[in-house]
Amino acid sequence: MDKRLIDVFVATCGLLAAAPVMLLIAAAITIDDGGPALFVQTRIGRDRKPFRIYKFRTMRDGWITGIGHWLRATGLDELPQLWNVLRGDMSLIGPRPLTGADIARLGWDGPAHDVRFRVPPGIVGLAQLHAGRGARLTRFLDAHYVERRTAALDAGILVVSAAIALLGKRRVRGWLRARRRARRLAAAPFGAQAAPAWRGQPVSAGARTG
Fold it and tell me: What is the pLDDT of residue 161?
């Protein structure tokens, strides 16, 4: 089945199924500090075209709110982006959309980095399953996804993302890191040290400002 058809079907079903939860979250955010429930920001999408992204607001005056901590830990702050998927701004799976400022800061505004903009950005992406590992790894994983995306890869990302929503990001990402370490040790010659961790600039600023 065409990926766009899958996106529309899943986004429609997701919005209908999650509507009661989304209403409760919106009410809780408003009650928590009296501010608006949604955070809207311009991000850069496919072919570097800007669009307006929707998220549940998790910050106020530069500080994460009480309910914001929980929303970020579960990833439920991203639920309004199902509307972006339905509109065609985004896909369910793909490189996370960044702000123009983040792209410039990372130096990803040149043609050498066009690969990550060949596809619609996603609510969840391969790089986000390994968050906090640096810009170099993010760039590699985004390019890997764009060049080798398959239905099986998308399904795996969705399964891990669902686990994050149920168990929390810290627990699931800890399990992923332990699994990667075990695989590196198993592949390394006896007595060799594991490969050094990736280093680079963090890329979380644009994705976690709301």
Answer: 78
